[in-house]
Amino acid sequence: MRITRLLLALLVGGWLLASVGVAQTLTIAQGVDATTLDPNDQEETPTANIVSNIFDPLLFRARDGSIEPWLATSVEAISDTVWEIELRDDVVFHNGEALDAEVVAWNFERALDADNPIRFISNFTQITGVEVTGEYSLRITTDAPFPIFRTHLTRFFMVSRQNYEALGRAGAAENPVGTGPYQFVSWQRDERVEMAAFEDYWQGAPSVERVVFRPIPETSSRVVELVTGGVDIITNVSAEAQGLINRSGTAQVATVPSIRNIFVIFTATDEGPLADPRVREALNLAVDVQAIVDSIFDGNAELTATPLNSYMFGYAPELEKPLYDPEQARALLAEAGYADGLSFSMGSPDGRYLNDRTVSEAIVGQLREVGVEVDLRVQEWSSYVGQVLEKQVPTDAYLIGWGNSNFDADRTLFTLLYGGTVEGGPAQSVFSYWQNERFDDLVLQARQVTDQERRETLYAEALAIVSEDYPWIFLYQQGDVYGVSTDVDWQPRPDELIWAYSASFE
Amino acid sequence: MFAYLVRRLLLVVVVVWGAATIAFGLLYLSGDPTNLMLPLDASEEVRDTFRREYGFDRPLPVQYGRYLGALLQGDFGTSLRNEQPALGLVLERFPPTLKLSGLALLVAVLIAVPAGVIAARYQGTWLELSVMTGALLGQAMPVFWLALMLILVFGLNLGWLPISGSGSWRHYVLPTITLATFSAASIARLTRNGLLAELKSDHVRTARAKGVFEQRVLYKHALRNAAIPVVTIIGLQLGTLVSGAVITETIFSWPGIGRFVLLAVAQRDFPVVQASVVLFALILAFVNLAVDLLYVVLDPRIRYS
Amino acid sequence: MMTPRRTLRLPLGRFGRILRRPAALVAVTLIALFLLCAAFAPLVAPFDPNAQSLATRLSPPGEGGHLLGTDQLGRDLLSRLLYGARLSLFVAGAGVLLGLSIGLPLGLLSGYAGRWADEIIMRLADIQLSIPFILLVIAIIAALGSSLTNTILVLGLTSWVAYARVVRGEVLRIRDLDYVQAATALGAGARRRLLRHILPNTLGPLIVLITLEFARLVVVEAALSFLGLSGVSAETPSWGQMLASGREVLFFGGWWVATFPGVAITLVVLAVNLFGDVLSEVLDPRQRLR
Question: What is the pTM of this model?
Answer without folding.
Answer: 0.84
